[in-house]
Amino acid sequence: MQTELNQRQARPFWLHALLALLSLYFFLSAINVMGSGLKAIGKETTWLADAIAQGDNPLVALMASVLVTSVVQSSSFTTSLIITLVAAGELSPGTAVFAVMGANIGTSITGIIVSLGTLRIKRQFRRAYATALMHAIPNVLTVVLLFPLEWATSSTGADGFTGGILTRTARWITSMLDLGSGEKMFNPIKAITKPIVTAVKEGAGWISGDNTTLAATLVAAIGLLILFMALIGLVKNLKDALLKRIEGLFTVLIFRNDLLAWISGIFSTVAVQSSSVTTSLMVPIAGAGAVKLRRVFPFMLGCNIGTTVTGVIAATANPTAGAVIVAISHVIFNLTDNAIWYPLRIIPIRLAKWYSSLAARRRKYAFIFLATVFLVVPTVALLISELFFFSD
Predict the structure, then answer these.
(1) pLDDT computed for residue 214 by the predictor
(2) What is the pLDDT of residues 220-249, one digit of tens each?
(3) Which end of the chain has fewer CB atoms within 10 angstroms, the N or the C?
(4) DSSP class of 320
């Protein structure tokens, strides 16, 4: 294990960069493979449509997304999956916006889990846990504010489009990009990834024979697997190529003031395509006292902006109007998050410090927050929705 680690660390920068580009290619290919399979499934059977139909309830979409993102520990994965479902016509943009909100909450679980590694050292744990909460608390509070607003303003227009204020704003921006509903603009990415899509479809067809439903399911499953593996490769190689160079600048340049911390959060997250990586890296650094907690907060807000780039990339891989609407909604949601909580930063910062002090004194509270936000509340909400919205 140690030998493999040393070999990976010894790889030159150019090799990591090349592997990152290769992973990006397979990531884009996976989007189109999965979309192709989902479209075919929609034509062959109604089971997927019936399952997704439950997501027409905003609470189901939100909580299911929290659970999925918590399990895979990657909002990039969940957001890409949501956008692909929209592009395939299996999920409406208005519903997908609520699912994206859930992904924003679920992604903060990684930093909290990382902070638990410092439990033995009380002072260090208090700072590390506060750092993780500075990512989680604003995300939760923003959903608490915007979820009911989006739901309350949701309506169906004369053209059949359903959505709330966020979705409609994103739709207006999308209309300026000259994308008609359901229409596709010129897509060079689809042309580049076509060999992979064709190979997967032919392979699935050979395995399934004349069973077209099985073939479509295999294509979607293979696309999902490629997507997950590509994200792992992309994050790992970008991390090895860039994050070690970024880490040395933290105490010298990045946290000199709030603006630099915010910009650094954006660009470091864009560089590694994962807010889970950058926020989790910050947890032990701040826990060790190398960075002041008040400088951590704008960095975390910047990470929320940076993570929207993955959704934008996913939308460009299959740019239907609906997919672009969801990607832009994600950007608007996180810009709103920044606009609300930076001026009011004293609220999430004090909440994070207060709860981290409580958790440092009584460790059970660290686990109570983790279980409540990422498991208990989503599960109970889904059960309530099933009983009251989908029971006969």
Answers:
(1) 87
(2) 888 878 877 876 776 677 666 555 555 555
(3) C
(4) B
- Cα dihedral sign, 209-211-215-218: negative
Please say whether the dihedral angle defined by the alpha carbons of residues 205, 208, 209 and 210, taken in this order, is positive or negative.
negative
Contacts of 371 (CB under 8 A, 6+ apart): none
Q: How many CB atoms lie within 10 A of CB 150?
A: 23
Residues 177-206: tens digit of each pLDDT: 654 444 444 556 677 888 888 898 888 888
Q: Report the SS3 class of residue 163.
A: strand
**Cα atoms found within 13 Å of the Cα of residue 189, Cβ hemisphere only:** 19
- Using CA atoms, how far apart are residues 12 and 18, in angstroms rounded to an integer? 10
Residues 284 and 118 sit within 8 Å (Cβ to Cβ): yes
> Nearest Cα to 250, choosing from 212, 295, 301, 316?
295
49-63, 104-118, 274-288, 328-342 — most confident range: 328-342
Strand partners, 162: 156
Q: Are 293 and 155 contacting, i.e. CB atoms less than 8 angstroms apart? A: no
Domain residue ranges of the chain, discontinuous segments joined by +:
2-389
Report the candidate in 141, 100, 82 with the shortest Cα–Cα distance to residue 338. Answer: 141
Q: Where are the alpha helices (DSSP H) in the chain?
A: 2-9, 13-44, 47-53, 58-72, 75-87, 93-106, 109-115, 122-152, 165-175, 188-208, 212-238, 244-247, 258-272, 275-287, 293-306, 308-317, 321-341, 346-361, 364-371, 377-389
The Cβ of residue 43 has, within 10 Å, a number of other Cβ atoms equal to: 10
Q: Give the pair of three-digit tokens for residue 129.
A: 């846990």
Distance of CA 100 to the CA centre of its chain: 7
Residue 57: strand, helix, or coil:
coil
Q: What angle do CA 385, 391, 392 make, to 5 degrees?
A: 160
pTM over 0.85? The answer is no
The dihedral through the CA atoms of 345, 351, 354, 357 has a sign that is negative
Strand partners, 320: 184
Half-sphere exposure of 216 (CA within 13 A, CB side): 18
